[in-house]
Specification:
153 residues; alpha+beta; Glutaredoxin; 7-stranded mixed beta sheet
């Protein structure tokens, strides 16, 4: 079940593409924009994260942190981040626990792949409550970037 507005976001600790642990609580006092994406190096996922990359300056003055999360390994995410010059952390939910906790999880995806993050976007406020939640059923759709920007500012 997808997290609802006003709910406390579940805390998590995941490894980033630099093999360092990152927790949601590390960003207490900031807004956090979390983008779940199914798989690195695929067309729509690249578009999703490149849109955030290209809009990154918008968030810099707003006390906000962008995070990308997928079930890819930290090693795959490191190459994906390097190839696309992402300036925000990519976190590996390899064990699929965070995707499930946020309700952004496919039991079965294309090509009979089991356990893949759904494309989703969440904004967590400074007190770690959910103030925006969008989970897309179709991996071909993109989040509403304007709605995310509006809620962050």
């Amino acid at each position: 079940m997808t997290l609802q507005l006003g709910e406390q976001a579940p805390d998590f600790t995941l490894f980033n593409s630099e093999l360092k642990e990152v927790s949601l609580k590390d960003f207490a006092g900031k807004k956090v924009i979390i983008h779940f994406f199914p798989m690195a190096f695929t067309g729509v996922c690249t578009t999703q994260l490149c849109t955030m990359r290209d809009n990154f300056g918008f968030y810099e003055g707003l006390n906000a942190q962008v995070l990308g999360i997928s079930v890819d390994s930290p090693f795959t995410l490191a190459k994906f981040k390097e190839d696309n010059n992402y300036q925000f952390p990519l976190l590996s939910d390899f064990n699929k626990e965070v995707s499930k906790a946020f309700g952004a999880y496919y039991d079965e995806f294309v090509f009979n792949l089991k356990g893949v993050s759904k494309r989703a976007a969440f904004v967590i406020d400074e007190n770690q409550k959910v103030i925006y939640a969008e989970v897309l059923e179709s991996a071909g759709d993109l989040p509403n970037f304007k709605a995310i920007d509006d809620i962050v500012k």
